[in-house]
Amino acid sequence: MSEESQSQVKENQQLPASVLKAVQNDLSKQTNLPAEEFKLMNATHESWTDGCLGLAKPDEMCSQALIDGWRVVITREKQTWVYRTDTNGRVIRQEN
User: Fold this and answer.
1) Which of 48, 78, 80, 95 could staple 67 via S-S, CB 3.0–4.6 A?
2) For 89, what's the count of Cα atoms within 13 Å in the CB-facing half-sphere?
3) Host H or E run for residue 11
């Protein structure tokens, strides 16, 4: 089963500012660039299959509960990053 089919997309929801800020701050820490340089390209509200947002690391234990959250696509110049988050941006995982 593909990761796309493991989540349920919920339409017409607006990304909370706290989620965008969490993702921008994570990228800022990784790249040493100002958070404001990372722009929102797309966001979809989704339900992830587990507490690791469907992105468990090897040997990582994840809660087995549906987690509402977001799939966030961020861009800067010609680069793109895709993140998964919980509803409020406390848990974030980078897809790529």
Assistant:
1) 48
2) 14
3) none
Q: Which residues are CB-contacts of 66 (< 8 A; sequence separation ≥ 6)?
A: 47, 48, 49
| pLDDT in the model for residue 13 | 67
Query: Are the CB atoms for 26 and 92 separated by under 8 Å?
Result: yes
Outline where DSSP puts E strands in the chain.
8-10, 39-48, 67-76, 79-86, 92-94
How many whole angstroms separate alpha carbon 46 and alpha carbon 30? 25
How many angstroms separate the CA atoms of 61 and 50, rounded?
10
Q: Which two tokens stand for residue 13?
A: 């929801």
pTM, rounded to two decimals? 0.83
